[in-house]
Amino acid sequence: MKKPGNYSRILVTSALTYANGDTHLGHIAGSILPGDMFARYCRLAGYDIIYVCGSDEFGTAIEMSAIKEGISPKEIIDKYHFANKKAYEDLGMSFDIYSRTSSDIHSKTSQDFFLNLYDKGLLYQKTEKQLYSEKESRFLADRYVKGTCPVCGFEEAKGDECENCGSALSPLELINPKSTITGDTPVVKESTHFYFPLSKYQEKLEKWIDSKADWKPNVINYCKGWFKTGLKDRAITRDLDWGVPVPLEGYGGKVIYVWFEAPIGYISNTLELFDQKGEPEKWKDYWFREDTKLVHFLGKDNIIFHAIFFPAMLMAREGFVLADNVPANEFMNLEGSKQSKSKGHAILVKDVVKKFNPDSIRYAIASNMPENKDTDFYWEDLQAKNNNELGAILGNFVNRTFVFAEKYFDLKVPERGSLEQIDNVLIESLKSYSKRIANYYESYKFKDAVGETMNLVRDANKYFNDTQPWKAVKDNKERCSTIINICLQLCHTFAVLFNPVLPLTSEKLLEMLNEDKANFSWDKSYEMCLPDGQVLNKPEILFVKIEDSQIEN
Ligand SMILES: [Zn+2]
Prior knowledge:
Helices cover 47% and strands 14% of the residues.
């Protein structure tokens, strides 16, 4: 195995998907596609790497969706866990495991985590007044309550915030509070909760983040903002039915708060992965050894959890590896406004994969990835990327190469004779392209990686035009044979270098070249791997043109 810098192995995570709705392109651009592209690159680079993701299935939002739809929370999460898992598969995502936080293994892992901190005396309890519905026999947390905003007088303010004036609220501050579900007027009752002493970890966290010179400025600045205000201790239990039960006697009706338990999903999913592989101890290599490079991919709304809360939990637990990087993305909006599944303004993955080539969707998002600022998804842009780049540049090059191979060389790799300067210049450029693109992946610059890969195809097309194989085939067949040999070698190069963003196309190219996976690695991307005489398979059209009618709503 090759080593990624000073590390021996890589653990990649994409933010867990909340299982109360269908996943949309905003999630893909924020955390899923960059994670998948990075994981795919790392595998090709020969690193020891696992890629972990899954569904986040507890919390009030799922319980509320269930109450509203008149079904159980379990029915909600089953529906969306499997739907989202399939949507990700359809879009070519290559998780080593996509599991769920409702699994037994996750409950146990979270409870062990909780107990470890409890046994060390790190957690403390605090009794607080809370709203309680006698009719529903439940405490009304956050969004279970609505009422009048004490700041602006808006009558539909939620228990945790007023959407009218933007104030952060607590349910007790609301005037005329009512249960969101039944409209019942709650009473005030006392409840005791466990707290995590986050404030104690501020200094350690600040030092840790100060050592991260290579993190994105947006992530560092966001954390510094929190440090400036001062970190406050946070409740890690809730009065709810739907969640991981607090593992202590006398705490019935209390669960571990989802902010605390969900990120433990990365650990429990790793455990589950190696359990399935029959190596139940191996997960420890990834979580307990300092030479593991842990990378969390996420959208900017999740920075707080991955750069502050979760690392503090891991520091408290001791011995666990902390993130090497948290390359958070900004948002990808939809034609000018934020994608939101709750507001119905989002492109659902399950719909879009039915209409378009998954690779074209991946490419359009990757070329416009919101790495440093918000970007917008436009249907016209998907069409343009598919037709003008994937089809007209990559598809065209592959197509004309195969047309020649089929028509003049019996669908075999023709012999490569003596090389001319134009051949050498191109062949020598492959290594520097490959290194440059690798550097972009290693530094989480996915947009640049994809752009540079397409630049290489532009060079390849120029080579085809300049060498004029259609003339050579008449005047000098041996020369034509060399040109087409080199063009076929380039198709192999593209199968490797495009794999992170275009996995399905990459597979098709390998199939057309009749290549097994022996030469399928980053280091082989700049070598002339195809032997003379290798029998090729019939070419396929890689990208079908997207017509105007297909993108009109
Ligand atoms: Zn307000």
